[in-house]
Design a protein that fits this description.
The chain is of the alpha+beta class and 149 residues long. Helices cover 19% and strands 26% of the residues. It has 3 helices and 8 strands. A 6-stranded antiparallel β-sheet has the order 1-7-8-4-3-5. Strands 2-6 form a two-stranded antiparallel ribbon. It is elongated, with a radius of gyration of 29 Å.
Length: 149
Amino acid sequence: MNERPVPLFVPPEGRRSAPSVAIPVPPVPVTYPQPSVELGIATVNADGRVREKKLIVEELGWSPSERTGTRIVTDGIVIRRSADRGDRVDPRGQVLIPSSPRALYGIGTGSRVVLVAVPEHEVLVVHSAAFVASLLAERYATSGVLSGC
């Protein structure tokens, strides 16, 4: 067999192709499941009340004069409707965060708090802004967000 290779399919001798260069690819965005919670930020007034109309009135459906009860949990304050006792939602749709839980979490007058409404359970959870910031800082440190851009 004296056939010769067809030049179209055989690279010329002595000629090398350039080394391949990796093309930078942006990271694939992380997707999260649809949350069943709504977030808001509010400032605690001098009476220890917070107002976030979208969460309290629209999402949770709480109306003025409804009573709320408060419970302290490991990292926040849980507020929910209470049939017979507790503080009332005021005419402006504000809810009271009692002084004991505020003191426990270092929440004073003028403090910013993160409000988490869980409409399915008719619950409002209050976290200090410092607590949420510490969670985010920890997340950023371990996820690579803070390393070279």
